[in-house]
Design the sequence.
């Protein structure tokens, strides 16, 4: 699970980081000392789990929790036990009081891992089968065969994805992260938080956007370096 730490106390961030590193199922992406910077980050990067302090300057943890994607799980970490009731309002996985007990930390993470697995399994019910060159997607109580080479791009929209082809679009209940795990890595590229593009259909690109047919799709800051390494190093002449 991809996780981040949001806490205004440097010592607390380091302590949680050490606990995270002991759990192989967790991959720490970044740590933040405020909710504002963390909010910008999760707009571009898929995060599965946030270890979130509550009492912080500016936007506090409860306020921030109300703004994050539904699929992102939260474990609150705070020195103040009186916030426990508030944590239930945002469906937090658990609530840990500092100093954090490593046993309780592992127990909370285990709950998050189990719940995350249930979410992924539920989402994957939208895909009936996956082959090398096509998938069957459930939409409107039917299953549609979608040839992977026909997909121009896939757009994520909250709990749904839109599969855009040249003459057809299919909408199904699934997250962009889930469908990205089912696609051929060498053909499809996550271009920003909301779009996956089929590299074979990219007609042109500049520093900020890719162009597919009549569509213009922005290149996210988080994905820009990998995108240009892929295309400019291997597929263009200067």
Sequence:
């Amino acid at each position: 699970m991809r996780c981040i730490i949001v806490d205004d106390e440097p010592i607390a961030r380091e302590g949680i980081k050490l606990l995270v590193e002991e759990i192989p199922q967790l991959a720490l992406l970044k740590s933040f000392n405020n909710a504002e910077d963390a909010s910008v980050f999760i707009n571009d990067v898929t995060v599965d789990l946030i270890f979130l302090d509550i009492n912080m300057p500016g936007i506090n943890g409860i306020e921030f929790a109300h703004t994050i994607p539904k699929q992102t799980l939260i474990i609150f970490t705070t020195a103040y036990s009186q916030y426990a009731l508030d944590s239930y309002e945002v469906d937090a996985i658990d609530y840990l009081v500092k100093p954090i007990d490593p046993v309780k930390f592992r127990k909370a993470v285990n709950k998050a891992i189990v719940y995350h697995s249930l979410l992924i399994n539920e989402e994957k019910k939208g895909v009936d089968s996956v082959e090398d060159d096509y998938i069957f997607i459930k939409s409107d109580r039917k299953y549609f065969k979608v040839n992977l080479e026909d997909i121009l791009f896939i757009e994520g929209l909250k709990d749904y994805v839109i599969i855009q082809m040249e003459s057809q679009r299919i909408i199904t209940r699934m997250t962009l992260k889930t469908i990205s795990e089912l696609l051929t890595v060498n053909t499809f590229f996550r271009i920003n938080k909301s779009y996956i593009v089929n590299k074979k259909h990219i007609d042109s690109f500049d520093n900020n956007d890719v162009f597919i047919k009549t569509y213009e799709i922005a290149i996210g800051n988080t994905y820009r370096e990998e995108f240009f390494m892929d295309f400019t190093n291997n597929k263009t002449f200067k």
Remarks:
- The chain has seven helices and 16 strands.
- Helices lie at 10-21, 35-44, 61-65, 84-88, 102-123, 176-180, 221-234.
- The first helix runs from residue 10 to 21.
- The radius of gyration is 20 Å.
